[in-house]
Amino acid sequence: MLARLIALREQLTPRGIRYAQLAPVAHLPNEILLDIFRHGAGIAPSTKRTLPFELAVSGVCRVWRHLALSCPEFWTSVFITSKTPPDHLSTYIGRSSDHLLTVTFCHWPSIKRDRIHLSSEAFLPHILNILYSNAWQLRSLRAWNVSDSALLTILSELIDVSAPALTDVSIKGNPTIHDAFYRNHDRFDFPFLIDDSAPSLTSLEIDHFPIETGPMPLGWSFSLRSLKSLTIRTDDLYGFRKANQVAFPLLIAAEDLRLLLQSANALEYLALYGPVVDCGDEENDSISAPVLRTLIIHCETPYVGYRYSLLNTLHAPLLDHLEILWHDDLSYQVWEGDDPTDYLFGSQGEPKFPLVKRLRLHDSTAEGQLHATSFIRAFPNVEELVIGEADVVHISSVLLSLVIPNSNTKNGTLAPGTWPRVKTVLLDGITLKSWKRCAGPLRRWMRAGGHEGAFVMMLNFCPGEIVDRAPTGCKTADVNADVLRILQMGSCVDSACKLATEKRIWYFY
Question: How far apart (Å, rounded) are the C-alpha atoms in residues 466 and 187?
Answer without folding.
Answer: 52
